[in-house]
Amino acid sequence: MGELIDKVKGNLNEAAGKLKQQSSNPETQAEGAAQELKGKGQQLKGAVKGAINSL
User: Fold this and answer.
1) Of the residues 5, 8, 29, 42, which has the maximum number of CB atoms within 10 A of its CB?
2) Which pLDDT value is given to residue 8?
3) Of 42, 53, 52, 55, whose CA–CA distance to 5 is shortest?
4) Whole-number Å distance between alpha carbons of 52 and 3
């Protein structure tokens, strides 16, 4: 179950990060890039949990 939660949170952070990168403010763009990267990390974490649970 934690796998699904991590993947959903990752998708949400990635989407929010992409939206922030559309801003004209450089600080917001940098924040968006970091948030997108965080989302990708959360998705990877979910995938790893899924792989471990399937063993």
Assistant:
1) 42
2) 96
3) 42
4) 10
Q: How far apart are CA 17 and CA 13, in angstroms?
A: 6
Residue 2 CB partners (closer than 8 Å, separation 6+) = 46, 49
| 3-class SS letters over the chain | CHHHHHHHHHHHHHHHHHHHCCCCCHHHHHHHHHHHHHHHHHHHHHHHHHHHHCC
- Burial state string for 3-25 with b = 16 or more CB within 10 A and e = fewer than 16: beebbebbeebbebbeebeeeee
Residues of the chain with pLDDT under 70: none
Domain residues for the domain of 11 are 2-53
Total structural domains within the chain: 1
